[in-house]
Amino acid sequence: MQETKVNQMRKQVDHIYRSESRRVFATLIRLLGDFDLAEEAMHEAFAVAAEKWPGEGMPANPRTWLVSVGRFKAIDAIRRRTRFDVSLAELGQRLDSSGIEVKDDENVEDDRLRLIFTCCHPALPQDAQIALTLREVCGLKTEAIASAFLVAPPTLAQRIVRAKAKIRDARIPYQVPSRTDLPERLDTVLQVIYLVFNEGYAASSGASLTRADLSGEAIRLGRLVMALLPEPEVMGLLALMLLQESRRNARTTSTGDLILLEDQDRSLWNPAQISEGRALVQQALASQRIGAYTLQGAIAAVHAEAPSTAATDWAQIVALYTLLGQIEHSPIIDLNRAVAVAMRDGPAAGLRLIDAILADGNLANYHLAHAARADLCRRLEKTADAEASYQRALALVKQEPERRFLERRLRELG
Amino acid sequence: MKFICLGYFDETQWDRLSKTEQTALMEECFAYDDELRRGGHFIGGEALQCFRNAATIRYRNGKVTVTDGPYAETKEQLGGILLLEARDLNHAIQLMSQHPGVRSGPFEIRPADEEINALVADREKSLQQN
């Protein structure tokens, strides 16, 4: 009897750890002003919980209890260390005299936003922003992040240590940016989330094309930011990720080969993710504050709504790419628009645009520009031109599945 | 907290401006420096002569060698430094983002190393006592 009760409580502590540990951690960083101290204190608090809750029962508000215990544990630890390190004495005194009573208030959610904005501070290098966000906000282990990004664990650990040192030494404050800075700072956060998503969706190198765990983590992060800060572009990004993710099962064969959108079995698309993504796009568009992620989400939504490539509203897609090109000048957007124009007006019209883009020189080393050109030449039965462009694309491609796809296309030219 | 702001600018672009344009730009910068002074944020600053007047010394093979020009060959050169008092990095970024000088070239904002500064201050004090 006693045994089962203890087991039940252990399960409950585990559950609280999964649901609350990141919140407790975020608040402890604010109270203690130090990432490492906060992490240590958070683990100590859970250790005390595992020891005490089975006998004394779970407190009414476990999160407040954990923050409070963590804070006292940290003060204890500082006192002990003060004997060896004079610089900590000041911190110990400050914490002691501040006498903050830990209350369960809205501050807790603010603390999570503070943590996100601090990890994604533009003064930190982008690879460190990504590593720090996955480590501190998502709670992933250093080894897991390292293997997902194909770097050695010590390299990634060093990235995190350096970033934390910079936060401390250059005094990057633990705060949500002011209203004037918010759009730009939010953009940095969204960029980190989208990079994580893309790393999971199309690995930048290596043999495996999809790493679902990272994409799932990015969507979780998107949902978290959405809950804390429901800005239109957050909705747009979350929609874009959900709509791309909805095609995961259709975009590769069982052997890992790439299947183009036009050849995908659309019954394999995830309807729940599509309807959630579409609703978010509508909500973001209705805000009238339309940004680049929302437009990309809208394009993905048009594809998701179409029963086939032929029945896709290409005019709508061309219009959305035109708008996107106005917000964000990029030759890659021009390339995508050219492909959509080819679907709307025929391959000859698309080819004229792509040749103009390639003539500008910006995408001369981008394999997909040559692959797109090859495809239009193939459709126009310009076999020699198609072959030359496939060869050019093959010389530039880095991913194994994409290489196999291009080789197959080249062979099919005959 | 003390931040040192290193102001860079492209001297060839500066030279293309007329004398009146140059004076107007400087006046704008001085006016903002005054605003920083009023807020207690301006600790000090130094303007630098042309990078062509610089000498770079380097320790190599057991002796010091002298070369002309600045250490780094870039389009933008260090033009001046400003010592800024700010609460934290975000505050420093916010204060310097409004400085008219940022329109002529980038600012690098670096926290002062107070540990080493404290050592220097100790030396100075002990010299004065002796």
Gyration radius of chain B, to the nearest Å?
A: 18 Å
- How does the major sheet of chain B shape up? 4 strands, antiparallel
Percent helix among the residues of chain B? 25-40%
Tally of DSSP helical segments of chain A: 19
GO molecular function, one term (chain A): DNA binding
Domain RNA polymerase sigma-70 region (chain A): 16-83
Domain DUF6596 (chain A): 185-284
GO biological process, one term (chain A): DNA-templated transcription initiation
Q: Can you describe what's shown?
A:
The complex is a heterodimer of chains A (414) and B (130). Chain A is an all-alpha fold. Chain A has 19 helices and no strands. In chain A, helix 1 crosses helix 5, helix 13 packs antiparallel against helix 14 and helix 17 runs antiparallel to helix 18. About 2% of the residues of chain A have low confidence. At the A-B interface, loops of A face helix 3 of B. Chain B: It holds the Pfam family YCII. Chain B: InterPro entries: Dimeric_a/b-barrel, YCII. Chain B: It comes from Vasconcelosia minhoensis LEGE 07310.
Please supply descriptive tags for the structure shown above.
A: Serine Threonine Protein Phosphatase 5, Tetratricopeptide repeat, 19 helices, B: alpha+beta, two-stranded antiparallel ribbon, 4 helices
